[in-house]
Design brief:
Blueprint: E1 11-15, E2 21-26, E3 32-39, H1 53-60, H2 72-79, E4 83-88, E5 93-100, H3 104-116, H4 122-141, H5 144-156, H6 170-174, H7 178-188, E6 194-200, H8 204-215, E7 238-245, E8 250-257, H9 268-279, H10 286-294, E9 298-304, E10 314-322, H11 328-345, H12 349-366, H13 370-383, H14 389-398, H15 402-412, E11 418-426
Parallel strand pairs: 2-6, 7-11
Antiparallel strand pairs: 1-2, 3-5, 3-6, 4-5, 8-10, 8-11, 9-10
Helix pairs in contact: 1-4, 1-7, 3-8, 9-15, 11-15
């Protein structure tokens, strides 16, 4: 995701004796506070046979402690006029509340309580694992493009944990036990594996005192040793086809590319981000102009790249849906031609200026959201960098040259480094009912 421009003076960082990191960004525009607890634990840390456990535990975190009964967490926040939720990704699990600023103590009290005192009962687990299975059916099994994405991840990554879906494989969910969730909680939920991010109409020193009061008494844990997990180099094009009931075909392609490793010296990740912006991200970008508007080969076409990755892996991805009457093969050829054009002729200064201006303007606009500012700080910190790199991000982007964009395309966007996943649409049964239904924690 593009990163945000920060006013450094307004961000302060603290560390509690038990290892909990606290980062506070003062923003006094409205009497609101956003509080986020980020755990450095996601599907990246799971093992075969227990996929999905990070996300299952996220659900279980709302099931109560000795002091707070199951479901009461959400009710207490709602009664205070606040909003709350959580999400799990490959790299982290985040829990957040948005409240009127005087209610920050409530947020801290509840989060500190469930960081250490979760009551993970067999009864609640038995109910909730069924909810997660429903969610898997709803989010993946019922959605053809999600199936393609899952197949793509499993093909582009052979050894790395990013090959596995965050929601987990159904067979693993069917065989998961409350003990698996307890083990995950015991291993990873500790103050020294968490970052507390607060953005809003607060004073940093007062937030620090409040954090010490509520989180300071929690004990640090010895965390499991994390193994380095490196994806072997790809040595030939890979393809996978998904057959599923759908109206239209779909194409997803990707190349292994580096993620940000050293924010001081790396330039390739920034060039890759600009390349993604040249191809998509605004109406004048190449894929929209050439494939959607001019040739009308595609209904939509986009490129994407995430320079932040705790697993030190990233993919430069292209995806598109062909227009009616057009084939996936035609669309793939057209997408690859766009890549070849950049390798051969590069990009223009005008294109680069448009991308840079667009990204930076979007960042300034997003700064209006306290939640988004917290997201940026939490993501960067949990992946293993300092929030301070956010300040320099616009300059890194501005420094990217047309030659650098062409160089990363030539170096990484190669046939032997390509994985292609396609949806082969099958007839839709008009009487078929969805397998799953949506659910919020």
């Amino acid at each position: 995701m593009p990163l945000t421009v920060f006013a450094a003076a307004s961000v302060q960082e603290f560390k509690l004796d038990n290892g909990l990191k606290l980062i506070v960004q003062e923003d006094h525009r409205s009497p609101v506070v956003v509080s986020q607890v980020w755990y450095r634990a996601g599907s990246l840390d799971e093992v075969n046979g227990k996929t999905g456990v990070a996300h299952v535990l996220e659900h279980m975190m709302f099931k109560g402690t000795r002091q707070v009964k199951a479901g009461q967490f959400s009710r207490l926040i709602a009664a205070a006029g606040g909003k709350e939720n959580a999400f799990t990704s490959t790299d982290y699990t985040c829990y957040f509340q948005q409240l009127e600023k005087s209610h920050l103590p409530l947020s801290f009290k509840l989060e500190a309580d469930r960081m250490a005192n979760l009551q993970l009962t067999d009864e609640e687990f038995a109910k909730e694992i069924k909810v997660v299975m429903e969610e898997r059916r709803w989010r993946t099994d019922d959605k053809p493009q999600s199936k393609v994405n899952e197949a793509f991840q499993g093909t582009v990554y052979r050894a790395h944990p990013y090959s596995r879906p965050v929601i987990g494989f159904m067979n693993d969910l069917e065989n998961m036990t409350a003990d698996d969730a307890r083990e995950w909680y015991h291993n990873w939920y500790a103050p020294n594996n968490a970052t507390l991010v607060v953005v809003g109409d607060v004073k940093a020193d007062e937030v620090y005192q409040l954090a010490k009061q509520h989180f300071g008494k929690l004990k640090a844990k010895a965390l499991p040793v994390r193994k380095p997990q490196v994806e072997p180099e790809q040595i030939g094009e890979r393809r996978t086809v998904v057959k599923a009931p759908a109206k239209l075909p779909y194409l997803l392609m990707g190349y292994h590319v580096p993620a940000l490793n050293d924010p001081e010296t790396d330039w390739e990740p920034y060039a890759l981000e600009v390349l993604a912006g040249v191809l998509s991200g605004n109406p004048a970008a190449r894929l929209n102009q050439r494939l959607v508007r001019e040739t009308q080969l595609a209904i939509d076409a986009s490129a994407g790249y995430d320079l932040m990755s705790r697993g030190h892996q990233s993919v430069f991805a292209l995806d598109a849906t062909p227009s009616e009457g057009k084939t996936v093969a035609e669309l793939e050829a057209a997408l690859l031609q766009q890549i070849e054009d950049i390798k051969a002729s590069g990009v223009t200064t005008e294109e680069l200026d448009r991308v840079k201006a667009g990204v930076i303007a979007a960042d300034v606009y997003k700064r209006d959201s306290m939640f988004y500012q917290g997201m940026q700080i939490g993501t960067v910190e949990t992946i293993g960098f300092s929030w301070k790199i956010l300040e320099d991000y616009p300059n890194k982007l501005r420094a990217v040259t047309p030659e650098q964009v062409q160089a990363v395309a030539r170096k990484y966007l190669l046939k032997d480094n390509l994985t292609v996943a396609t949806l082969d649409p099958q007839p839709i049964d008009p009487n078929a009912k969805p397998q799953g239904k949506p659910h919020v924690h």
